[in-house]
Amino acid sequence: MEHHEQSPRREPHERWLDEEEDDFPQPPPAMRRGSFNERRSSVAQRGTQMMTFLLLGVLVVMVLAYTYLKDESRPWEDDLKRPALTEKAPDLSAPTRMKVMLVAGAKIRLSELPNTPPWEWDTPSLSQALDEYGVVLDNFRDLLGETKEEWAPRSLLWMIEDFGSDPAWHAVIRLKQAESAYLARSGREEAGFLAAIELAKLAHLVEQLDAWPSFMDRSLDLQQASAQSLASLLRRTQLDAAALRRLQDEEYRQWTPSVAGLREAMGGYYAFERKLLIGPEDGEPPLPDGYMPIRTDWLLFKPNATLHLFADSFRELKSESSATVMARQNQIGFRMGRRARGGAIIPDGNATGEEYFATRIQPYFALPDRHGLARAQHAGVMTLFAVRRFLLTEARVPKDVDELTAAYLPDDVVDPFSGSRLRINLASGVIYSVGTDMRDDGGRATPLPLDDPTEPTLDIGISVAKPAS
Q1: Would you say residue 9 has pLDDT above 90?
Q2: Sign (positive/negative) of CA torsion 248, 188, 202, 220?
Q3: Residues whose CB falls within 8 Å of the CB of residue 237, separated by 6 or more in sequence, listed in order
Q4: What does the domain layout of the chain look like in residue ranges?
Q5: Are 196 and 251 in contact (CB under 8 A)?
Q6: Which residues are CB-contacts of 315 (< 8 A; sequence separation ≥ 6)?
Q7: 322 Cα distance to chain centroid
Q8: Is-contact 361 308, C-beta < 8 A?
Q9: Side-chain-side CA neighbours of residue 359 (13 Å)
Q10: Could you tell me the pLDDT band of residue 465, with boundaries at 50, 70 and 90?
Q11: C-alpha 211: how far from its chain's center?
């Protein structure tokens, strides 16, 4: 009987042919089952990933191109437009006379004059300055003698040259103050008052010229110089009540800084900034040397988007130019603050334009307060006129501002920072406005009258002691 060797018993968990598997040659890796499909799948997966990244890259480029290259459309600006420019008039002589005055004023050597307010100069110094530079004062009076039509703000002749930025203005103003002080000291006190009031008259005329923002700056300088000279004269005046009334009501009152003028000027200032940004429009003269249009091809600079910032801001400033300076409700501070925050990993598409806007808008942002300060200075002088008249008529100082009835002080003479009459502090002998901080601190006298913007104050020239308790 043939004996058959029995196969070993296998447990369920054991594999068959385990002992023989080493006897079978293993196929090379390239020939293993399924390797071709795996390689084909891997290649397809890599291709899909590359296509996904490519599409994402295209999308990112499109977004960046839209963000950094696409500009906005021009802003709506009908409410900011000024009347059409008038043609050059050959007989418009006021610009020429202003230039002649400034050329003569440039010859004044301020370093050789006393470095104190002109009303504190000694009489020989006043006399010498007037003798040496009298031609400047003649030019000043000739300029004031021009007719109203000569000061047409929309004449192209006012746009050719930026007279307001001429450094000679400072010397011209000081010389005019010296003339006022000399006339009063030499026994012609009323003429001295009129010379100081002429500074306010020229301020009113220059204020209307909105072709250059510098004209408003010079107007405010002229107003302040006039108010300070008049405050000095009124402290020690010897004029009678009738003369003071005439100077107050008929000469000085009409030259108060104009709220309506400031409101309308915002359109002119917007046109100026637009001209700097994108160049002159049809019919406008080119910008003079020193004023070059901003390069709008800079990286991250969108001209129209930047112009939108200016249009919105000037529109808000125009609406906020009112008789009473109130808390601001505009968004200009927020727009300027966007530049200060900065620090973003990815900059804004108009980052350079926003920085340019923040730099240029700052002087206009402060203009309502500066204009309000000029009106407070004018109201302070008007109130001082009233107090001096009351003192001569009633033989006493008023107990408070309420005693200054309309016979002495018109009802519309108010503090633009409070909307009510200016304050009188009899114990200190001062008249004052609550100022730009809108807080009543009782008045703070300064070496120059009305020189503190937070509390513009002027000396009455007489104080009343408080009664003993």
Answers
A1: no
A2: negative
A3: 189, 244, 388
A4: 90-371
A5: no
A6: 79, 80, 266
A7: 16
A8: no
A9: 8
A10: very low
A11: 15
